[in-house]
Amino acid sequence: MLIPESEIISIRENKATLIKNFISLKLNYDFNLLSQLLEKNDLPIYVKSTIGNMRDVFQIRKVTNLFEEIKPTINFLGDLFCYEKKENDGIDLFFSFVSQAGTPHWDEEDVFILGLQGEVMYKIFGVETKNYIVKKGDMIFIPKGLKHKVIALSPRIVASVGFWGNKKNV
After folding, report:
1. I need a labelling partner for 39 at 20 to 30 A (CA). Which of 5, 9, 13, 152 fits?
2. Which of the four CATH numbers 3.90.70.10, 2.60.120.650, 3.10.690.10, 3.40.630.30 does domain 5-163 have?
């Protein structure tokens, strides 16, 4: 895991920040892996949109302890940015089977999105609108309260590392 100093500063300043090639992933994060995960762990799937006909966005919550390769990420980011620990902190998976666009929204927590499979564009609405493309191994930081829209450019799987506490001033 590597974050250049300029991106660390950007994240500390609560700016949307893309880090290309943040993590080298050995595991093939595909839909077969998701199926195995669900079979072994009896996890509920949450539907995040209601488009229907398998065009929805799906979420699997609290998978922090299920992926040894990704698990250290939450401690690394939490320590680097000095987050106050909260019970809701953790890693969720989001996936979709087709290209589609979500609705503009903002999150109540700071999120670090890790690309696991496919390509996703994050449209960030701020002083100016910016588009960021996230691929496998890339990471984007989106601070809580920043309006954004997720556009899956292909079938995709992402891990969302969420921090509900505040960052302590360093």
Report:
1. 152
2. 2.60.120.650
